[in-house]
Amino acid sequence: MSTAVAVVLLVAVIAYAVLGGADFGAGFWDLTAGGPQRGARPRDLVERAIGPVWEANHVWLIFILVILWTSFPEAYASITLTLFVPMMIAALGIVLRGASFAFRKTVVALRYRRIFGAAFAASSVLVPYCMGAIVGGIASGRVPAGGVAGDPARSWINPTSVVGGVLAVAAAAYLAAVYLVQDARRLDEPDMAQHFRRRALVSAVAVAVIAAAGAFVLRADAGHLFDGLTSRALPAVIVSGVCGVGALVLLHRDASRGARALGVVAVAAAVAAWGLAQSPYVLPESLTFSAAAAPTGTLTAVLVAAVLAVVVVVPGFVLLFVLDRRGLLPAEGLEDEADDVLEERPRQRTHSSGHDGA
């Protein structure tokens, strides 16, 4: 029973990685788009691509926390007590990111638009880094069992956590770039498709380099995880590598289909490889899933709830994405009031100049 719930938990983590991760990655490209003139069109595409769906993706994070808390309470207590600093930073970053994304569409003053835009973009990098650092702290065995607190600093400021954080940011940027290539083509913006295709290629290479360098770090700092990745999780590692190379080739050839799917599978397989490598431990080498599991009745209720979520929630997600792909949803719930005002001001100045000249 505990194994089944652990699988549900891993599936939810994968869903958050490939959906929420892409939204965070879009924020990375917003951050690096350039100045107001050069970066205007890439930022506009980012807003149109993630506007209708970005709020929904954090459902997976809530689902993960609820499943972990309900099904493996001892592990949940240890993780939250030990890693409360990066978890708090990530939570504040998510709130700041959402507020900034909404407010920068309504403020008129350019100074405030820049402030909100910078907050949105910076938090889009900070949150996935903290998520990766949390995974690194858990995977490297720095969270003790028994529902007690470990070192609040070394648990997430260590070699494995740094690799995990940097890799999470790079993978999110890669996913977002791959998604945005397809979005640009769907919106008939071939120049933006080429813009993000180049960034997808660069970020794919960056992910590969970071992962290769990270293997040496894991061997020295997280032996259990490294051993798992080179044994029981090796098939998932191979699938991730093959799909990543396939996506890279398709992007290089500027193929119109296939790169997006392969990119998603590559990231999903990498996350699955982490889960398989860490198995059977929820806290490596100190607490297994079976030892940390709640009573059987609780686990049964969790599985029933998960099935109901699939039946009730997933169709809503599918409908949301289908409507978005077909262009039947607005990019935002509100019109960009700031753009309207900024467009109106030059007209007023022109009209005023003509009147004065008359």
Automatic annotation (TrEMBL):
Biased composition (Basic and acidic residues): 343-358
GO terms classed as biological process: aerobic electron transport chain
Pfam families (UniProt xref): Cyt_bd_oxida_II
Keyword Iron appears in the UniProt entry: no
Transmembrane segments: 6-29, 75-96, 116-139, 159-181, 201-220, 232-251, 258-277, 297-323
GO CC entries: cytochrome complex; plasma membrane
Localization terms from the record: Cell membrane
Keyword line: Cell membrane, Membrane, Transmembrane, Transmembrane helix
Disordered, as annotated region: 339-358
Membrane topology, as annotated: Multi-pass membrane protein
Family: Belongs to the cytochrome ubiquinol oxidase subunit 2 family.
Name under which the protein is recorded: Cytochrome bd ubiquinol oxidase subunit II
Organism expressing this protein natively: Pseudonocardia dioxanivorans (strain ATCC 55486 / DSM 44775 / JCM 13855 / CB1190)
Lineage, broadest ranks: Bacteria, Bacillati, Actinomycetota, Actinomycetes, Pseudonocardiales
